Amino acid sequence: MEFSAVVLDLDGTYLNGSKEVSARNLAAVIECHRRGMGIVFATARPPRAVKWFLPEELLGIGSFVYYNGAQVVCTLSRAEWHESIPVALTADILDYCAANYSGGHLSMEVRDEWYSLKELDYSAVMNARANPVVKPIEELKEYEATKILLTNIEDPQALIPLFGRQVNILVTDNGTVVQIMPKQASKEGAVSELCRRRGIDMKSVIVFGDDHNDIGLFQTCGYSVAMGNAIKELKELADETTAANDEDGVARVLERFF
């Protein structure tokens, strides 16, 4: 099979359990780039985290879909765009979460700046190298959120009938993380626009993923590969399932096409 681009999720997919890119996975993607394929990293992570985890040689050759599509940067075409949740809607969501999930952890991303209502240590839970800046809720309600994050809460599905028509709500990481993004933001929408700008047919794109936020990509890309550690729903959609992220599952597939 001939592919024009490869799309890679990071956590649970291209990164191993230690949040590192293995030598084999690195070599495979470098070879794809050498052969003229477009390289797209599509992640829920913010820009700063991608810089933490990816080797320097990958940062200069890829296009980057951050926050599940709310922010996009293409290194090669120099294209860049950003989506956000309107101020009034951000305030409504923050008020509801503060009132109904007082025992949970609420934080908010605003264009690569991270804020929360209280001191939180995400170094172990989310492999973050810096924790959010604490600000009062009234100040947070003045921002247009790029993404709102909830962890350690019960019944996250209750948010969907309340706000699901206005924002994009994803429950990931085995139900432990709720990610609230702008309604128009999605990995598949961002990748489709990147491909359109670069003249790449989505049918010629191969995608790798492991979680709920990759489902849209699996439905729109030409060929989809679920990781061995992926959720059941993704494996059922995939054209094939490869080895787990700790077993170089990405490289094992890409090497077949060289």
From TrEMBL:
Q: Which PANTHER family did the record assign?
A: HAD SUPERFAMILY HYDROLASE-LIKE, TYPE 3 (PTHR10000:SF8), PHOSPHOSERINE PHOSPHATASE (PTHR10000)
Q: Which domain of life is it from?
A: Bacteria
A molecular-function term among this protein's GO annotations: hydrolase activity
Which protein, by its recorded name, is this? HAD family hydrolase
Which species is the source of this protein? Answer: Paenibacillus oenotherae
Q: Which UniProt keywords apply?
A: Hydrolase
Enumerate the NCBIfam families for this protein. Cof-subfamily, HAD-SF-IIB
Supply the Gene3D superfamilies for this chain: 3.30.1240.10, HAD superfamily/HAD-like (3.40.50.1000)
Q: Name one Pfam family in it.
A: Hydrolase_3
